[in-house]
Amino acid sequence: MLKRPQTTGQVLSSQSVYNGPIFKVLQQTIKTPDGLTVHRDLVEHGEAVVMLAMTADRQQVLVNQEYRVGLNGEAIALPAGLIDPGEDPVTAAKRELAEETGYIASDLRPFTSMMASEGFTNERITAVMATIDPNQRTERHFDQDEFVTTNLVPFTDLVTAVRDGEVTSAQTIAAVSYYLAFIASAQ
After folding, report:
1. What Gene Ontology molecular-function terms does this entry list (predicted)?
2. How far is residue 25's CA from residue 10's CA, in Å, rounded to a whole number?
């Protein structure tokens, strides 16, 4: 079995060079566990959630039109969002799902956690499973600069879209793959 290393580096200096509404960038000098002194940029980012929210007949809530600056276009992905201060991942998942999609989640369970890209950011994303009833809806509440189009798709169609490269969201690919490998196969 693999063991996760437990050693950490010693931050010798840290200077904020950008502070935005969602993340900030720090330039750091670090003494690594093996004794090297390195200079690194860190994108400090709040924690987030991604939701695998399905109906009883395995229809998955999917965000199929949301502008993403990294693509300069719209993306297909699972619903996701930032965890607000004082929230735990389950509370954030329930809130974000209702805000973005209007669906009311029940039976929420975190099932894995991932780092967005530990080479330059500390963003941790918790994947949460949820059950939804398509007939139970609430009013959606978008952020001021957000517009999201969602729909229900058969989970098998989402798997096909991941396989065929239509879905490029790393957190969506990871959540779907983890679900297939460790949860669905155990049921």
Report:
1. hydrolase activity
2. 18
